[in-house]
Amino acid sequence: MNINETINFDHIADFAAKERAISKSKLSPGTRVGEGLQIVGDDAEEFLQSFAEKFNVNFSAFEFHQYFPGEATAEMHHYLLNTKKTSFNPIFRLINQAERSFWRIFSKDTSFKTITLQDLENAAKLGKWLNN
Length: 132
Fold this sequence. Notes:
By secondary structure, the chain is mostly helical. It folds into 2 domains: about 90 residues, Non-ribosomal Peptide Synthetase Peptidyl Carrier Protein, Chain A (Orthogonal Bundle), CATH 1.10.1200; about 45 residues. About 55% of the residues lie in helices and about 0% in strands. The protein contains 7 helices and no strands. The two termini are about 20 Å apart. The relative contact order is 0.22.
């Protein structure tokens, strides 16, 4: 197995910061792609396709539905509400709680595997995704 040692976390952080238009200083190897970068559905698919092209990574073993909810689904709404920072305002917290409960009723699956920027760095070094 060939390992590309020229790839490091800075390359991955540069890519993620540019793709998500956020400060690189806010990223760490433990940053979660879905939760931390707030990427789900079609956006997650496009992010991973761009990543695969830039770093020449084969994602054929990647099972998208295990890591991200689909676009415009109850699972996506539930996922995003659960990853959103809670307001200090009690009225907004109550509204957020009600929304989460509502979308949970219609969600078939509410737990997804996590991908971190460290996982993406490992995939870039190996040239392929290895399921955890």
